Amino acid sequence: MKRASELRLYCPAQPRYVAPIRHALAAFLEALQFDRRLRDDVTTAAGEALANVVEHAYARTSEKEARDLQLLARHERGRLCVDVSDRGSFIRRRPAPGRGFGLRIIRAIARQINIDTSQGTCVSMTFKAPALRGKR
Amino acid sequence: MNAGNSIRTIRLGGELEISRKNELRGVLSRSKTDRAVLLDLSEVTYADSVALTELLRFCIDAQRATVPVALIIRTPQFARIVQYAGLDSAFKTFNDPDAALGYLAEQVAP
After folding, report:
1. Nearest to A18 among B19, B57, B83 (CB)
2. What is the pLDDT along chain B (110 residues), one digit of tens a residue?
3. Inter-axis angle of helices B49-64 and A101-109, to 10 degrees?
4. Interchain pair B18, A15: CB under 8 A
5. pTM above the 0.80 mark?
């Protein structure tokens, strides 16, 4: 039975941490030998979810409370799942011109997206990821 | 600035993403003397929706002032995120600088 590959990262929900997390995800995907386009698309979608956390998740919480985010990427049986979660509050906004591109981009890339707002917010994205080459 | 036809060039490179939001907002500001603007983004290696929003704000502002704007985009990730965001028709994009300059020169021609 093939084992799953997993990447789990935590960091403060601040703009300067988004790029390093995205780069770590890209390195994880490269190590799994996914092609460049898939790597770019997955990191683009994850980058949008991360930016949403940084921009919106903690807008209603006090500065004394922890403001962090987590990224969990997991590859198993031809599926790649990336969860981006926080402990803030989900803000449902009305659609407006020039806004809301992040979720639109994620929906265009991911095969499936689920947003769980029961405890903070967890955006779960699933991507079709073909079988790995080589020994895996 | 191209003195012959007053086309101003703004060059940006690297990763255009959330940590550079304030920088982008500052750089992407229109001058009253602009007749046309070339946004040379050929050295951009990554762009996110925060960058797209700033680019869109700049282009809408320029459009209201009837100042044509052309974008040079060469990175596949950048080109795709524009499509994913549904902004294909919002930007006049080129992957060739000469074609972009030719378009702008036509637009500002008397």
Report:
1. B19
2. 554 558 999 999 999 999 999 999 999 988 888 899 999 999 999 999 999 999 999 999 999 999 999 999 999 999 999 999 999 999 999 999 999 999 999 998 77
3. 120
4. yes
5. yes
- Closest alpha carbon within chain A to B17: A19
Contact present, B36 and B108 (Cβ < 8 Å):
yes
Output the 3-class SS for chain B: CECCCCEEEEEEEEEECHHHHHHHHHHCCCCCCCCEEEEEEEEEEEECHHHHHHHHHHHHHHHHCCCCEEEECCCHHHHHHHHHCCCCCCCCEECCHHHHHHHHHHHHCC
Determine the residue type at A98.
G
Which positions in chain B have a beta carbon within 8 angstroms of at least one beta carbon in chain A? 15, 17-19, 21, 46, 48-50, 52-53, 56-57, 60, 76-77, 80-81, 83-87
Is the separation of the CB atoms in A125 and A113 below 8 Å? yes
| Model ipTM value | 0.90
Partners of A99 on chain B (C-beta within 8 Å) are 53
